[in-house]
Amino acid sequence: MEMLNVGQFELVSNAFSFAIAVMGAATIFLFLGRSQVASHYKTAVTISGIVTLIAFYHYWRIFDSWQGAYAVTKTGLEATAHKFNDAYRYVDWLLTVPLLLIELILVMKLSREETTAKAQKLAGAAALMILLGYPGEISADVGTKFKWWFLSMIPFLYIVMNLFSGLSKAINAQPESVRDLITTARNLTVLSWCFYPVVYALYFIPGANVGSAEVATYVQIGYTISDILAKAVFGVFIYVVAVRKSEANA
What domains are defined for the chain? Predict the structure, then answer.
């Protein structure tokens, strides 16, 4: 990868630092908030807290790896003997992305059979999506990146279709007081997830150099913003839905 300048390095560092703070705060909030919801919804809120806790840990490791890969000197930025390990991000996604779908399903209070079926189907597709995306992420060849991006979009589109069509009936059956909130949570999931393939597609911009410092900076910041929306913000939505449904005894 092309050497970053000090400004790009610090911008990414600050984004990682912000994500650590957000994920840590969200974890504390969600775990403490379990006492405010009915027993049926504690699992959904707990999973939300676990998601942000996993993200907090991995962003700590990502930040540490980023800091260790470069050294700021009087003349600028220099690479160290330690390579930045971006695999932490994919390990995080492999664990958290399926859980994000499960917490959305759990907060709907579907039947056990329907909950199990939807959780297995969507979580399995989410894991496949992450596994297919990783070979392209680590490749320096644009053609290879596009091939794996295209393959990962197949389970991604399957998940999006299920969130809109497969869960529409379940959402319409929710109490009126929380229906809009659950719809917003579903839409936030889709919107935040759409950021990931868009960020990935920055590699395919005509004239863009896969190994350029500018592209690397945008990719790291784009993924970080997406994670904050998809995990911390989404987790708070799940908590609010759980509280409203607990108050309505629904």
Answer: 6-247 (1.20.1070.10)
Cα–Cα nearest to 242, from 53, 37, 29:
37
Amino acid at 19: A
Question: Does residue 150 contact residue 198 with C-beta atoms inside 8 Å?
Answer: no
- Give the DSSP per-residue string, 20-89: HHHHHHHHHHHHHHGGGS-HHHHHHHHHHHHHHHHHHHHHHHHHHHHHHHEEEETTEEEE-SSPP-THHH
**Each residue's pLDDT tens digit, 190-200:** 888 888 888 88
217-242 pLDDT per residue, tens = 999 999 999 999 999 999 998 999 89
Q: In the 8-state DSSP scheme, what is residue 204?
A: G
Q: Which amino acid is at 169?
A: K
d(CA 92, CA 78): 28
161 burial (CB, 10 Å; 0-12 / 13-18 / 19+) is exposed
Q: Which residue has the tokens 């589109």?
A: 157
Q: How far is CA 243 from CA 79, 206, 228, in A?
A: 49, 48, 22
Q: Considering the entire predicted model, what is its pTM?
A: 0.90
In angstroms, how far is the first alpha carbon of the chain from the final one?
53
